[in-house]
Amino acid sequence: MPSDFDKGAYPEPPRQTPVVDKQTALPNPALILSKLFYYSVDLPVTTFRDVVDSIRAKNKSVYYHQKFRRVPDLTECQQGDYLCYYEAEMHGQGATISTGDAVDECDPVFLSSFLSKVDQEIVKVVQERMRACHQREGASYQQNCAKEIEQFNEATKNYQSRYGDLGAYASGRKCLMKQKERMMAAQASSD
């Protein structure tokens, strides 16, 4: 500060904080209630929670290390175990959606809904090729498009043999029985 300032206009600040003047000799009731609440409620609850948390920390199971039991396949289910059937069906539907694996046969784990869509697309592509050849060749399409017609007939025959009798609401059990019938028919024809 400059030496020529006006001390009347700007007094110097006090050097120490002034002492609070107590107007009464009685203690503050708010202070008493807050201390009473702290020692009777807050401190015991906090201590109890700390003890419980320390016990839990020792026995903590990490969720990403949890091992789930394997869902059984339809072939592993006992006869009449409807809960096992349901679990296998739901696992099969989830597996086809999440993995997108395509197998050649109708497999009970990979339900036919995903596979039939793949095979439907194959039939559509072959059918488009056959129609394009028919459009291109005109009246003589049966001679010139014999290869495409043969591919279409084979694709539709394969699709029918796999998914023909399953219907719109194909289940894993129906699919498994269809596969079993096909295997038995193939075995009977080879004998």
From TrEMBL:
Main localization of the protein described in the UniProt heading: mitochondrion
Region feature Disordered, mapped onto this chain: 1-21
Keyword flag Translocase: no
Compartments in which it is found: Mitochondrion inner membrane
GO cellular-component term (any): mitochondrial inner membrane
Keyword annotations: Electron transport, Membrane, Mitochondrion, Mitochondrion inner membrane, Respiratory chain, Transport
Topology class, membrane: Peripheral membrane protein
Superkingdom in the source lineage: Eukaryota
Protein purpose: Accessory subunit that is involved in the functional assembly of the mitochondrial respiratory chain complex I. Complex I has an NADH dehydrogenase activity with ubiquinone as an immediate electron acceptor and mediates the transfer of electrons from NADH to the respiratory chain.
Family, per entry: Belongs to the complex I NDUFB10 subunit family.
Protein name: NADH dehydrogenase [ubiquinone] 1 beta subcomplex subunit 10
Species this chain originates from: Etheostoma spectabile (orangethroat darter)
